[in-house]
Amino acid sequence: MPHLDLSDTHWVKSSHSSDGGECVEWAPAAHPGLVPVRDSKDPQGPALLFTASSFAAFVTVTKSGHFSEV
């Protein structure tokens, strides 16, 4: 995986997230084919890198309700 400088990255949070909530953020345009994901409570912390296709699959499964709250 390449090292990405994410210091000027535009991060996106789900519209279903509340302010101060426990959320993840992603950066859809950070690098072609890769989607960085980070903890919104720790914006200076590490980011995980996923392939765009893996992230799209995760979003699809999540929207289907497969990962419901317990």
TrEMBL record:
Residues 1-20 are annotated as: Disordered. Residues 10-61 form the DUF397 domain. Pfam families: DUF397. Residues 1-11 have a biased composition (Basic and acidic residues). This is DUF397 domain-containing protein. It comes from Kitasatospora saccharophila. The lineage of its organism: Bacteria, Bacillati, Actinomycetota, Actinomycetes, Kitasatosporales.
